[in-house]
Amino acid sequence: MAMTTTQELDPELIETEMREMPRNNTGSLTAGQVAEYDREGYLVLPGLLTREDMAQVRESMSRKVSKIADMLLADGLISDKLENDPFETRLVNLFKGLTEQDFLKYGRSWRDRYSGYYHLMANAKILDAVESLIGAEIYANPVYNARPKVPGVAAGAVPWHQDKSYWPNANWNPVITVWIPLVDTDEVNGCLHVWPRTHKTRLVSFHNETHTGTGYTEIDLKEQADRNAVVLPVKAGSAILFNDRCIHSSTPNKSSHVRWSVDLRYQPTEQQRMIEYGVGFLARSRKYPERVATEEDWLAMRDEHQA
Questions:
Q1: Are 250 and 158 in contact (CB under 8 A)?
Q2: Whether 281 contacts 298, CB under 8 Å
Q3: Is 84 exposed, middle or buried (0-12, 13-18, 19+ CB in 10 A)?
């Protein structure tokens, strides 16, 4: 696939003094993978997680769907909770005949404090990869999302944006997004698209889009992004790592099943913890291993372990 440079961006947007994270040659990524991430702003890790690795987060997602089914039934919008439907299609079938507004009542993404999300965020395979990029003192950012991209719901499509547009006033923060699909993703069900090498730009101008009814941020360079897009279809359990300045999007789901994914975020512990977005947790520390948050800590909204 053809790689893209930032040459089409306004020169005023090019970051001239990007601070580089010190590297200590630890973690699971090879030198070549680290170099690719540094050059392109993203890295694909095929098959990082097994079905067993994802079992608990799938259970948490299913638990949420069951709660939604209970509420739909209580509101008289459905007559059958479809408890025997498979993970991939139950949510679609629950909302058949209902409106986008009915769906959006439950959010375009979920940030529930279920155990399965903690276990995924604390998964050693993920942390090993992140360690190669930001070092061994890792904080799990409070902005994590479970995303059910449902066919026929406009909010499932995420416009071109930089994650940093959601925290533009935060201090210099090399936030690493780890995007993981729970089902195979492709251009039919709405896989991820990226604009390579845009991670070394300043935050580009953006606005709040109006198409989906969610107020997503959207860059003002959509046509350029469309021209330079790299499409990233991946199998379930793969991971796509990218910088919070990397411009990316995902397209509508035109399949018959839910495109389930999670996006997790990690940052060095010395950076501000962005508590205005919630409570994250200390996920790994070689210096202070006794402070690493346990599942109990996370469920109690403590960001570190209290001995």
A1: yes
A2: yes
A3: exposed
